[in-house]
User: Fold this.
Amino acid sequence: MAVIKRLRTRPSYLTPNEPDLLEVPTGSRAPAFLGETISGATFTNESLIGSEAIFAFFDTGCSTCKTAIPELIEYAQKHNVKSDQIVSIISGDPSDATEYITKLSGIATIILDGPGGSVSGSFGISGIPAYVVVDGNGIVVRSGKSQGILPQKGLM
Assistant:
């Protein structure tokens, strides 16, 4: 029964091959969080109500993250995803985040989460890079460790 329910909650346009993150499975509500964008604005889970969004979790000490960022940028441009629909949470030493900020500016809303970040902690993210796609009601429609989980037709 659980498998049937899961198949019903996952839109057919998503890639089925990668398992969900255990921390934020399909069908769960995105957790409440509070962060500050690099422009100084407060950003919460309520900031995204009514809009599909992608949360992309990176860390300044992660070499895989550095190669994943250009792929996320290409995805955003190919599918005309607005910068307020991609939330990039960058953990690690903020003084090492300049490269990430430079590349993601204009592509994503950026939150510097610092070491042991509170936003990453709210989601329970234990490995990076990680991606969580939520619908306009804040419900997780997909999560995973690779960009293969991102909607193949972009966000609505």
